[in-house]
UniProtKB/TrEMBL annotation:
Name of protein: DUF2637 domain-containing protein
Annotated stretches, region: Disordered: 1-22, 236-298, 353-378
Pfam families membership: DUF2637
Biased composition (Basic residues): 284-297
Transmembrane segments: 32-55, 67-90
Ranges of Basic and acidic residues composition bias in the record: 238-247, 368-378
Keywords: Membrane, Transmembrane, Transmembrane helix
Amino acid sequence: MSSDLKALSPPPSFGGPENNASRSRALSSNEFAAVAVVAALVAVLGLLGFVNSFAAVAEAARPSFGFLAWTVPLGVDLGIAIFAALDIVLARLDMRMRWLRLIPWTLTAATVYMNVAGEASAFGKVAHAVLPCLWVVAVEVAAHVVRVRAGIEAGTRMDRIRSSRWFLSPFRTAALWRRMVLWEIRSYSDALTRERARLLTLTELQDAYGTVAWRWHAPRRVRALYRLGELTSGEDAEDRRDADDRPSAPLSDAEDRPAIEAPPSASPSAPPSRTDERTNRRTASARKRGRSARSKRAVPDVDDLMPLGWRIAADLEARGVALSRDNVAAALREADQAVSNARASALLARLKTEAPTEPIRPTTDDAPAAHDPIEGHR
């Protein structure tokens, strides 16, 4: 089992490399012009609201403030503009305080009340309330846009899970969202990739130790790494190795990690402790059960394909092509040897573990060949 489980690359919360692909792109000239026009229109909207409410609020405040009645609408409207701008600036710096948005909302509600207090008709009340409300909505939209772009650039914004997934699979989606929040997996696609690896790893643990018994029979280190999302199945690791065998894809640190093995004892000559003996007996019995279950499936016989397989392996190596199951199966089909996926996998396993009985020379274009396993009959 330890040979099938390998370490995954850690998520961003574990000190993984940043994903520069999620950086927000710069605005084009046309987009910048559109943003400038919208900002100018919002400023005009705010100015219109200020002018319309100034006279009404000043007149309503004259009995209480006298000569200083004009300072009431000026102070309230400036407070709305100042705190709205402060909210946008803090959002741009990724330091936004959620309660700060309540201040312009409260001031807007106050100026709306002072505007409509002296109006007797419904038209006058609605007309005096619309412009301040539109100003607050425009400022809130601007703060949202700035906050989203700041989160993308800082790498702290977490992707949202689409509503259709919540509808189709609510419980699994809730578990996926929980893992994204707990382990700070901010990319939705990365979370799906890690979820796929987790399910494959869970399947291998259940096959090796039992559907439910793996929670007790699997080594504690393996169980801990599984819960941390640090394990991947042997099939997934094989796919990554096949992809990384290509010349243009350099190996990363995650693929260079060794397989998870039992930790060495303190001293080679020291006798094992009782805890180690119990763990070894439990692990050995679980592995024996896993091997007995797997032995029921017969391994395909590929002795007749070994000579052709060694020649195909030599040809693939000479051409710089990765030795994978798909490439071997394609070469066999071109050589009029149609095989199933199981036989192709068995042949690939033997090619990787056994050496040819005699030297195999790859096929070249200069040497004529009556039957080429890669190119077929010419």
